[in-house]
């Protein structure tokens, strides 16, 4: 059984504590993993293993926190990043369970936010949005729920209005081809594209009516 002979804050990482056992540096632990440790406490091998597991979990949570600050992530994205960083599988599962419990990882909320963001800034067709979310590893049920309230015709109309003015100088045929190609690249269906074209070409005062 080893005795804790010193606990020292790591000057380079203030949220880490250097734990010395029997006069020798044993581990550099995150503050969250140190808990109630104190100088003079004795640690048996089982307690040491528990501390190592808590340390690995705290480090993984810290890594996840840095990722989530940049942007929301799906569970699959986080799992991939932790796996790539060499985090043990058991630790990955504990971390993801904890994040699901706190609501910091929620594929349903992630999918809804993804769709809302696309609709607000870069409208896409449902097929393209589904493919994007599939690449993020979002389950099919979460994708379907996120897309359930989407009005693809209005999304295409919003996308078309963003670009139609730049082609105002072209003749009708060229403008129609440009718009068709633009919306098709964004995953909109042919019937949706034709509907948008009719709305744009409708006489003034009628273009706001859905046909």
In CATH's first tier, which class of the largest domain applies? Mainly Alpha
**Count of distinct structural domains:** 3
Instruction: Give the topology string: H per helix, E per strand.
Output: EEEHEHHHHHHHHH
The assigned CATH architecture of the largest domain is Orthogonal Bundle
Largest sheet: 4 strands, antiparallel
Q: Cα-atom Rg, whole angstroms?
A: 27 Å
Judged by helices, strands and strand pairing, the structural class is alpha+beta
Name the poorly predicted regions.
207-211
CATH level 4 superfamily of the largest domain:
Winged helix-like DNA-binding domain superfamily/Winged helix DNA-binding domain
Global morphology = rod-shaped
Question: Total strand count, please?
Answer: 4
Estimate the helix proportion, in percent.
55-70%
Enter the CATH topology name of the largest domain.
Arc Repressor Mutant, subunit A
Q: What's the end-to-end separation, in Å?
A: 80 Å
Structural description of this entry:
The chain is of the alpha+beta class and 211 residues long. It folds into 3 domains: 2-105, Arc Repressor Mutant, subunit A, CATH 1.10.10.10; 107-150, Arc Repressor Mutant, subunit A; 151-211. It has helices spanning 31-34, 45-70, 75-84, 89-102, 107-121, 126-135, 140-147, 152-163, 172-185, 190-201, and strands at residues 2-10, 13-21, 24-30, 42-43. A 4-stranded antiparallel sheet has the order 3-2-1-4. The radius of gyration is 27 Å and the shape is rod-shaped. The N and C termini lie far apart (80 Å). The model is unreliable at 207-211 (pLDDT under 50).
């Amino acid at each position: 059984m080893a005795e804790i002979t010193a606990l020292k804050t790591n000057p380079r990482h203030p949220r880490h504590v250097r734990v010395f056992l029997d006069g020798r540096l044993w581990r550099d632990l995150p503050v969250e993993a140190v808990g109630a440790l104190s100088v003079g406490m004795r640690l048996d091998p089982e307690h040491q293993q528990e501390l190592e597991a808590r340390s690995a979990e705290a480090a993984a949570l810290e890594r996840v926190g840095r990722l989530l600050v940049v942007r929301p992530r799906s569970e699959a994205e986080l799992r991939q990043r932790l796996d790539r960083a060499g985090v043990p599988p058991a630790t990955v599962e504990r971390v993801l369970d904890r994040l699901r419990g706190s609501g910091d990882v929620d594929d349903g909320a992630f999918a809804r936010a993804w769709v809302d963001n696309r609709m607000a800034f870069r409208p896409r067709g449902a097929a393209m949005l589904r493919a994007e979310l599939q690449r993020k590893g979002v389950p099919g049920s979460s994708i379907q729920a996120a897309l359930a309230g989407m009005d693809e015709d209005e999304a295409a109309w919003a996308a078309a209005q963003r670009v139609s003015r730049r082609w105002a100088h072209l003749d009708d045929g060229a403008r129609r081809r440009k718009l068709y190609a633009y919306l098709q690249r964004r995953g909109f269906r042919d019937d949706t594209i034709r509907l948008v074209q009719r709305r744009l070409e409708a006489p003034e005062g009628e273009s706001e009516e859905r046909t």
